[in-house]
Amino acid sequence: MIPLEGYSAQSTFYSLKYLSPVNSKTSSSTLRSLLPPQSSAYSATGSTPFPPPNSSIAFSSASKPLREQEPPAKKKIRLSSSPSHTTTQRTRFSAPLPSSLPTSPNPPLPQKYKQGLAPLPSPLRPHCLARERLHKWTPAGANTRLPTNSHTEAHISEEQLDRILQVMGSSWAQSTKETYGAGLLVFHVYCDSQKIPETQRCPVSPTILLSFLASCAGSYSGTALANYTAGLKAWHLLHGRPWIVNAKELKAVLDGATALAPESSKCSKREPFTVNILSTIRTFLNLDDHRDAAIFACITTTFYAIARLGEFTVPTIKSFDPVKHISRCHVSTTVDRNGLPVTKFHLPTTKASPITGEDAFWSAQEGPSDPQTALENHLRINPASELTHLFAWKHPKGMRPLSKREVTKRLASVAQTASLPDLKGHGLRIGGTLEYLLRGVPFDVVKSMGRWSSDAFTIYLRDHAVVIAPYIQALTPALEPLSRPSMPPVRR
Predict the structure, then answer these.
(1) Burial class (CB in 10 A: 0-12, 13-18, 19+), 91
(2) Has this prediction a pTM greater than 0.85?
């Protein structure tokens, strides 16, 4: 028995370990009832009940009989914050990855290869979706990530190697992996036609790569070949193979392929949307119609946020994923220090930031193209839960996410009826850029709004003279205070 005099927090803990009513299945409420009234330190989190330091607790008369029922030491239990044997411990390693979880009941199936683009059968290249080729098409030879000396290096299992591929592959957006997969297909079809051995395809020799690109010149655009080269480089990186290509030689052959690209491979310039075009489209849409209300809200938001149409739509109506695509819960309104409201749209995944996503913004505008009025009308016509696609519309079969194809098809119909130019989805981003520049918004502000990391957006300046006019006036330039910091750097 422990003497009561000088009884401390530690002795309280000691005595609780030997109370006979307590066993390994004692509930937390029972344990709390066994504590003296002065000690209320036991929390719902399961922390060890210690009173404040230097405090003393005297036993009441009711606690003495319990002390006399002290069991043998071998039956003692220990109160601690560690989980019991019935609790599943949370591991910090090898957590399930989204790609390893069960897929949907009807997963997409790979399409047949196009005529002239079918590789020779090989166990190294199973028939799979284009976005899966980076991962599933493996180079010949031993895996370079396997230990070379089993006596000195740790064993790496096949599951661990496959997990490396999954995690590294997650750094690329799905659309990027599809483009890279197309490049892999074209490269292997070329190697098959030239009877290039599997061992020489990865790591690829500079001569073979340059020969491949040179053979494609005149049939593919320079952009396509640059993307295919990036896909080959990503394939080497993913599977741990060295990339030994000379950068200057590669640039020279890609520049040459661009100059030799056929006219049919070059995309015509996208006609930019304007505020007047948006207003005209509005008159040809029925904003009381579920689909039209969603489409007009989508295109005005895309235009004034200088965004890509694909960032506010879904590829197909069955591919909507609230983790990847914008939902109604991703919209918020903030006010600056001057009381000016701004509406923010968090895009969960984008081409430039597939992991953390990016934010886009707009504020209310004047006139019939006002995105705020359009969005409020859409949300009133198509009410839905917070996890629904932002521009989902009420279809007879239920709420349907707004697909990019649905938008472009409706816009083409309106353009034909209203005698408008041929309008493409990317024209919204171009038009929004030009609209803000024509208003005199500084170049760096437009660059930030459009989320460009470089000055690539300047290629959208179709109306150079009109955009530049305010900056070059001889007498009192209209934008003289802003012209110096906002003009793009001179190209040398």
Answers:
(1) exposed
(2) no
